Amino acid sequence: MSILTPDRVRIHPGSATQEEALQEAAALLVGAGAVTPAYLDAMRQREQTVSTFMGNGLAIPHGTNEAKDEILSSALCVIRYDGGVDWAGDPVTFVIGIAGRGDEHLEILSQIAILFSEEDDVARLAAARSEEDLFAMLAEVNG
Length: 143
Known about the structure:
Elements: E1 9-12, E2 15-16, H1 18-31, H2 39-49, E3 53-55, E4 58-59, E5 75-87, E6 90-99, H3 104-115, H4 119-127, H5 131-138
Parallel strand pairs: 1-5, 2-5, 4-6
Antiparallel strand pairs: 3-4, 5-6
């Protein structure tokens, strides 16, 4: 089963608040059947203890360790906000919501970190003209 499907890749021309971005990421993961609705609160709790801002315009919101029971299966969603998100003071363009069963989230996180470590790759992702193009570029992390 793919952890990322085309219906969980979104591009918004405008901006969003951090809370709106968290809600959308959680809703996509709930819609995928990957998490329970309670996962959103776990994502909020994670942000209160440590920001999931990763640099290079990327945030990777995910739940706390205590929320493992809210995760039904591993899944990703990728949302690009072309107008940006103020992520607790850091500028974010990409919000990648993660739900990982067991230790799978560590492997997923490392793949994303590699993809977003190269500024050229980030620029390519930011320049993708459609959700389909963006999905195709992300397919390499789709294991």
